[in-house]
Design a protein that fits this description.
This protein has 109 residues and is mostly beta strands. The protein is built from one helix and five strands. The structure holds zinc ion. Zinc ion is lined by residues 70, 72-73, 76, 78, 100, 102.
Length: 109
């Protein structure tokens, strides 16, 4: 059933951003973490994890994607996303395989 998840992260960059150069784009290796969830259940999994903050929602040809980023740094390579099937609204959670690469801000001292 997961073969229907044929979305592309590139999709969000069409149209509006034609003139924007892609600078330092990271390559994310998405891995399926959980599936057969409701949207609310998927959101609560990420909330409980306390590492993620909602970044944006976008729609691909057959899915709705809620993108979450590291709450310390939205450029951190560690990310999560909830993918909703637009016909059934079944939710799956994907995550990057990589460890966090954000730099912890230290207090002055
Ligand atoms: Zn991080």
């Amino acid at each position: 059933m997961l073969e229907t998840l044929n979305y592309s992260d590139e999709y969000q960059n069409t149209n509006e951003n034609k003139q924007t150069k892609k600078i330092g784009r990271k390559c994310f290796n998405w891995k399926l973490l959980k599936t057969d969830l409701t949207k609310a259940a998927a959101e609560s999994v990420l909330k409980k994890d306390k590492q993620w903050t909602f970044n944006k929602q976008y729609t691909t040809s057959c899915n709705i994607v809620l993108q979450y980023v590291c709450r310390k740094d939205d450029n951190c390579i560690a990310r999560r996303k909830i993918v909703l099937q637009s016909n059934s609204l079944d939710a799956s959670i994907f995550g990057t395989d990589e460890e966090h690469d954000h730099i912890e801000k230290k207090g002055r001292g």
